[in-house]
Amino acid sequence: MSASDEPRELRRLSFGAVAEQYDRHRPGYPVQMVRDVIAYAGARAGDRALEVGAGTGKATLLFAAEGLEVTAVEPDPGMAAVGADRLAAAGLQVQFVSSDFEAAFEQAGLPEHSFKLLFCATAWHWVTPGLRNQLAARALVPGGALAPFWNRPVWPRNPLREALEDVYRAIEREYGVTPAGPMNPFGEPAEIKSSTDWLESEFSDREVFTDIEVRLYDNPMRYSAEQYVALTGTHSDHQILEPNVRAQLFEGIRQAIEAAGGSFELTYQTLLCLARRV
Protein backbone atom coordinates (compact mmCIF):
# COMPACT_ATOMS: atom_id res chain seq x y z
CA MET A 1 0.00 0.00 0.00
CA SER A 2 1.33 3.42 -0.93
CA ALA A 3 1.24 6.22 1.63
CA SER A 4 -0.55 8.26 -1.04
CA ASP A 5 -3.56 5.96 -0.57
CA GLU A 6 -4.19 7.59 2.83
CA PRO A 7 -7.20 9.91 2.97
CA ARG A 8 -6.53 13.01 0.90
CA GLU A 9 -7.96 15.31 3.53
CA LEU A 10 -5.57 13.95 6.18
CA ARG A 11 -2.62 14.82 3.96
CA ARG A 12 -3.98 18.16 2.77
CA LEU A 13 -4.31 19.51 6.30
CA SER A 14 -1.19 17.87 7.72
CA PHE A 15 1.13 20.84 7.20
CA GLY A 16 0.09 23.04 10.11
CA ALA A 17 1.79 20.72 12.61
CA VAL A 18 5.14 21.48 10.95
CA ALA A 19 4.44 25.04 9.78
CA GLU A 20 7.62 26.60 11.17
CA GLN A 21 9.70 23.73 9.82
CA TYR A 22 7.97 24.05 6.47
CA ASP A 23 8.72 27.76 6.29
CA ARG A 24 12.35 27.24 7.25
CA HIS A 25 13.22 24.36 4.92
CA ARG A 26 10.95 24.37 1.86
CA PRO A 27 12.60 26.01 -1.16
CA GLY A 28 11.39 29.39 -2.34
CA TYR A 29 10.55 30.47 -5.88
CA PRO A 30 12.59 32.33 -8.52
CA VAL A 31 12.03 36.08 -8.48
CA GLN A 32 12.29 36.08 -12.28
CA MET A 33 9.39 33.63 -12.44
CA VAL A 34 7.27 35.94 -10.26
CA ARG A 35 8.00 38.86 -12.56
CA ASP A 36 7.26 36.74 -15.62
CA VAL A 37 3.88 35.80 -14.15
CA ILE A 38 3.03 39.43 -13.47
CA ALA A 39 4.08 40.40 -16.99
CA TYR A 40 1.99 37.61 -18.51
CA ALA A 41 -1.01 38.81 -16.48
CA GLY A 42 -0.43 42.40 -17.53
CA ALA A 43 -0.72 43.30 -13.85
CA ARG A 44 0.51 46.49 -12.25
CA ALA A 45 1.09 47.69 -8.71
CA GLY A 46 -2.26 47.94 -6.96
CA ASP A 47 -3.98 45.28 -9.07
CA ARG A 48 -5.77 42.54 -7.15
CA ALA A 49 -4.26 39.06 -7.04
CA LEU A 50 -5.68 35.93 -5.44
CA GLU A 51 -3.42 33.24 -3.99
CA VAL A 52 -4.84 29.75 -3.45
CA GLY A 53 -3.14 27.67 -0.76
CA ALA A 54 -0.85 30.40 0.56
CA GLY A 55 0.79 28.17 3.18
CA THR A 56 3.42 30.09 5.12
CA GLY A 57 3.59 32.85 2.54
CA LYS A 58 6.74 31.86 0.66
CA ALA A 59 5.22 32.96 -2.66
CA THR A 60 2.80 35.46 -1.10
CA LEU A 61 5.66 37.67 0.02
CA LEU A 62 7.24 37.74 -3.44
CA PHE A 63 4.05 38.83 -5.21
CA ALA A 64 3.10 41.33 -2.53
CA ALA A 65 6.59 42.82 -2.70
CA GLU A 66 5.94 43.59 -6.39
CA GLY A 67 3.07 45.87 -5.34
CA LEU A 68 0.09 43.60 -5.96
CA GLU A 69 -2.89 43.70 -3.59
CA VAL A 70 -2.92 40.03 -2.56
CA THR A 71 -5.79 38.08 -1.02
CA ALA A 72 -4.45 34.77 0.30
CA VAL A 73 -6.75 31.76 0.76
CA GLU A 74 -5.36 29.17 3.22
CA PRO A 75 -7.39 26.46 5.02
CA ASP A 76 -4.78 25.54 7.65
CA PRO A 77 -4.69 28.06 10.53
CA GLY A 78 -1.19 26.98 11.60
CA MET A 79 0.24 27.69 8.17
CA ALA A 80 -1.67 30.96 7.83
CA ALA A 81 -0.41 32.20 11.21
CA VAL A 82 3.22 31.73 10.16
CA GLY A 83 2.48 33.39 6.82
CA ALA A 84 0.81 36.40 8.42
CA ASP A 85 3.76 36.84 10.79
CA ARG A 86 6.41 36.72 8.08
CA LEU A 87 4.49 39.19 5.89
CA ALA A 88 3.99 41.58 8.81
CA ALA A 89 7.72 41.36 9.56
CA ALA A 90 8.39 42.37 5.95
CA GLY A 91 6.01 45.32 6.25
CA LEU A 92 3.57 43.90 3.71
CA GLN A 93 -0.20 43.87 4.06
CA VAL A 94 -2.04 40.80 2.78
CA GLN A 95 -5.62 39.75 3.49
CA PHE A 96 -5.76 36.11 4.64
CA VAL A 97 -9.00 34.17 4.08
CA SER A 98 -9.40 31.09 6.28
CA SER A 99 -11.01 28.63 3.87
CA ASP A 100 -10.29 26.09 1.22
CA PHE A 101 -10.82 27.38 -2.30
CA GLU A 102 -13.86 25.21 -2.93
CA ALA A 103 -15.81 26.96 -0.14
CA ALA A 104 -14.29 30.43 -0.36
CA PHE A 105 -17.04 32.07 -2.42
CA GLU A 106 -20.06 30.90 -0.43
CA GLN A 107 -18.59 30.56 3.07
CA ALA A 108 -15.89 33.24 3.11
CA GLY A 109 -17.42 35.86 0.81
CA LEU A 110 -14.66 35.76 -1.80
CA PRO A 111 -15.72 38.18 -4.54
CA GLU A 112 -16.35 36.89 -8.04
CA HIS A 113 -14.57 38.14 -11.19
CA SER A 114 -12.43 40.53 -9.16
CA PHE A 115 -8.82 39.41 -9.61
CA LYS A 116 -6.32 40.18 -12.35
CA LEU A 117 -4.19 37.19 -11.35
CA LEU A 118 -4.71 33.90 -9.54
CA PHE A 119 -1.48 32.19 -8.49
CA CYS A 120 -0.90 29.01 -6.53
CA ALA A 121 2.45 27.77 -5.20
CA THR A 122 2.82 23.97 -5.01
CA ALA A 123 -0.80 23.57 -3.90
CA TRP A 124 -3.06 23.48 -6.98
CA HIS A 125 -3.15 19.66 -6.82
CA TRP A 126 -5.01 19.95 -3.49
CA VAL A 127 -7.93 21.74 -5.19
CA THR A 128 -10.54 19.36 -6.59
CA PRO A 129 -9.65 18.29 -10.15
CA GLY A 130 -12.39 19.15 -12.61
CA LEU A 131 -13.59 21.96 -10.34
CA ARG A 132 -10.44 24.03 -9.85
CA ASN A 133 -10.49 25.62 -13.31
CA GLN A 134 -14.16 26.52 -12.90
CA LEU A 135 -13.35 28.18 -9.58
CA ALA A 136 -10.42 30.04 -11.15
CA ALA A 137 -12.67 31.35 -13.92
CA ARG A 138 -15.16 32.48 -11.29
CA ALA A 139 -12.46 34.46 -9.46
CA LEU A 140 -10.73 36.10 -12.43
CA VAL A 141 -11.72 39.14 -14.44
CA PRO A 142 -11.95 38.59 -18.22
CA GLY A 143 -8.38 38.47 -19.49
CA GLY A 144 -7.06 37.59 -16.02
CA ALA A 145 -4.28 35.05 -15.63
CA LEU A 146 -4.18 31.67 -13.89
CA ALA A 147 -0.67 30.71 -12.75
CA PRO A 148 -0.13 27.60 -10.64
CA PHE A 149 3.48 26.49 -10.18
CA TRP A 150 5.35 23.69 -8.47
CA ASN A 151 8.87 23.11 -7.17
CA ARG A 152 9.92 19.61 -8.20
CA PRO A 153 13.23 17.91 -7.35
CA VAL A 154 15.23 16.73 -10.36
CA TRP A 155 16.47 13.21 -9.55
CA PRO A 156 17.91 11.99 -12.87
CA ARG A 157 21.72 12.22 -12.77
CA ASN A 158 21.73 13.22 -9.09
CA PRO A 159 24.71 11.38 -7.53
CA LEU A 160 22.74 10.52 -4.38
CA ARG A 161 19.71 9.14 -6.16
CA GLU A 162 20.72 5.46 -6.03
CA ALA A 163 21.58 5.55 -2.33
CA LEU A 164 18.30 7.25 -1.43
CA GLU A 165 16.32 4.85 -3.59
CA ASP A 166 17.88 1.98 -1.63
CA VAL A 167 16.69 3.55 1.64
CA TYR A 168 13.09 3.91 0.41
CA ARG A 169 13.01 0.43 -1.09
CA ALA A 170 14.25 -1.07 2.18
CA ILE A 171 11.37 0.60 4.02
CA GLU A 172 8.93 -0.67 1.41
CA ARG A 173 10.24 -4.23 1.74
CA GLU A 174 10.10 -4.20 5.54
CA TYR A 175 6.82 -2.35 6.14
CA GLY A 176 4.92 -2.54 2.86
CA VAL A 177 4.57 1.25 2.61
CA THR A 178 6.46 3.96 0.81
CA PRO A 179 6.02 7.71 0.48
CA ALA A 180 5.03 8.12 -3.14
CA GLY A 181 5.68 11.84 -3.57
CA PRO A 182 8.51 13.81 -5.17
CA MET A 183 11.11 13.43 -2.38
CA ASN A 184 11.17 9.70 -3.04
CA PRO A 185 13.53 9.36 -6.04
CA PHE A 186 11.38 6.63 -7.57
CA GLY A 187 8.05 8.09 -6.43
CA GLU A 188 5.34 9.75 -8.46
CA PRO A 189 4.39 13.30 -7.39
CA ALA A 190 0.65 13.73 -6.92
CA GLU A 191 0.49 16.95 -8.90
CA ILE A 192 0.86 18.14 -12.50
CA LYS A 193 3.92 16.14 -13.54
CA SER A 194 4.76 17.54 -16.96
CA SER A 195 3.94 20.14 -19.55
CA THR A 196 1.79 17.50 -21.29
CA ASP A 197 -0.43 17.16 -18.21
CA TRP A 198 -1.08 20.89 -18.27
CA LEU A 199 -1.35 21.49 -22.00
CA GLU A 200 -3.37 18.41 -22.92
CA SER A 201 -5.01 16.92 -19.83
CA GLU A 202 -5.83 19.90 -17.63
CA PHE A 203 -7.12 22.01 -20.52
CA SER A 204 -8.66 19.64 -23.04
CA ASP A 205 -11.59 22.08 -23.26
CA ARG A 206 -10.34 25.59 -24.02
CA GLU A 207 -13.57 27.56 -24.16
CA VAL A 208 -12.86 29.42 -20.89
CA PHE A 209 -9.03 29.68 -20.91
CA THR A 210 -6.62 30.47 -23.73
CA ASP A 211 -2.92 31.36 -24.27
CA ILE A 212 -1.98 28.18 -22.39
CA GLU A 213 1.73 27.54 -21.90
CA VAL A 214 4.40 26.12 -19.62
CA ARG A 215 7.74 27.60 -18.50
CA LEU A 216 10.55 25.99 -16.49
CA TYR A 217 13.06 27.50 -14.04
CA ASP A 218 16.00 25.74 -12.36
CA ASN A 219 16.93 26.39 -8.74
CA PRO A 220 19.89 24.42 -7.27
CA MET A 221 19.98 23.96 -3.47
CA ARG A 222 22.58 22.39 -1.14
CA TYR A 223 21.48 20.44 1.94
CA SER A 224 23.27 19.00 4.93
CA ALA A 225 21.94 15.69 6.22
CA GLU A 226 19.99 17.45 9.00
CA GLN A 227 18.56 20.07 6.67
CA TYR A 228 17.42 17.51 4.14
CA VAL A 229 15.78 15.28 6.73
CA ALA A 230 13.95 18.35 8.08
CA LEU A 231 12.83 19.25 4.55
CA THR A 232 11.60 15.73 3.89
CA GLY A 233 9.61 15.84 7.12
CA THR A 234 7.48 18.69 5.74
CA HIS A 235 5.99 16.46 3.02
CA SER A 236 2.59 15.02 3.81
CA ASP A 237 3.35 11.52 2.53
CA HIS A 238 6.20 11.33 5.07
CA GLN A 239 4.25 12.93 7.92
CA ILE A 240 1.52 10.30 7.88
CA LEU A 241 3.90 7.35 8.19
CA GLU A 242 3.88 5.48 11.50
CA PRO A 243 6.42 7.14 13.83
CA ASN A 244 8.75 4.12 13.94
CA VAL A 245 8.69 3.81 10.14
CA ARG A 246 9.34 7.52 9.69
CA ALA A 247 12.22 7.45 12.19
CA GLN A 248 13.86 4.52 10.43
CA LEU A 249 13.42 6.17 7.03
CA PHE A 250 14.90 9.45 8.23
CA GLU A 251 17.86 7.70 9.83
CA GLY A 252 18.53 5.87 6.56
CA ILE A 253 18.39 9.14 4.63
CA ARG A 254 20.71 10.80 7.14
CA GLN A 255 23.24 7.98 6.89
CA ALA A 256 23.17 8.03 3.08
CA ILE A 257 23.96 11.75 3.00
CA GLU A 258 26.67 11.47 5.66
CA ALA A 259 28.28 8.64 3.68
CA ALA A 260 28.38 10.94 0.63
CA GLY A 261 30.32 13.64 2.51
CA GLY A 262 27.64 15.16 4.72
CA SER A 263 25.83 17.29 2.14
CA PHE A 264 24.60 17.18 -1.45
CA GLU A 265 23.16 19.43 -4.12
CA LEU A 266 19.58 18.96 -5.29
CA THR A 267 18.28 20.98 -8.20
CA TYR A 268 14.65 21.99 -8.12
CA GLN A 269 12.82 22.73 -11.33
CA THR A 270 9.94 25.14 -10.97
CA LEU A 271 7.16 24.22 -13.38
CA LEU A 272 5.05 27.30 -14.16
CA CYS A 273 1.69 26.74 -15.87
CA LEU A 274 -0.09 29.69 -17.43
CA ALA A 275 -3.58 30.25 -18.84
CA ARG A 276 -5.66 33.33 -19.61
CA ARG A 277 -9.34 33.76 -18.82
CA VAL A 278 -11.33 34.41 -21.98
Q: Please work out how many helical segments DSSP would assign.
A: 12
Q: What Rg do the Cα atoms give?
A: 19 Å
Roughly how much helix do the residues carry, as a percent range? 25-40%
Per CATH, what is the topology? Rossmann fold
**Main β sheet profile:** 7 strands, mixed
Supply the CATH architecture.
3-Layer(aba) Sandwich
What is the straight-line distance between the termini?
Answer: 42 Å
Query: Using DSSP, what is the number of strands?
Result: 7
Number of domains: 1
Give the integer mean of the pLDDT values.
90
Report the uncertain regions: 1-6
Principal-axis shape? globular
Strand-residue proportion: 15-25%
Question: What would you give as the CATH superfamily?
Answer: Vaccinia Virus protein VP39
Word description of this protein:
- The structure is a single chain.
- The protein has a seven-stranded mixed β-sheet with strand order 3-2-1-4-5-7-6.
- The chain has one domain: Vaccinia Virus protein VP39 (Rossmann fold, 3-Layer(aba) Sandwich), CATH 3.40.50.150.
- It has helices spanning 8-12, 19-25, 31-41, 58-65, 77-89, 104-108, 132-139, 161-175, 195-202, 225-232, 236-239, 243-259, and strands at 48-52, 69-73, 95-97, 115-121, 140-153, 209-224, 263-277.
- It is built from twelve helices and seven strands.
- With 278 residues, the protein is of the alpha/beta class.
- Mean pLDDT is 90; it is low at 1-6.
- It is globular and about 55 Å long.
- Helix 5 (77-89) links the parallel strand 2 (69-73) and strand 3.
- Helix content is 39%, strand content 23%.
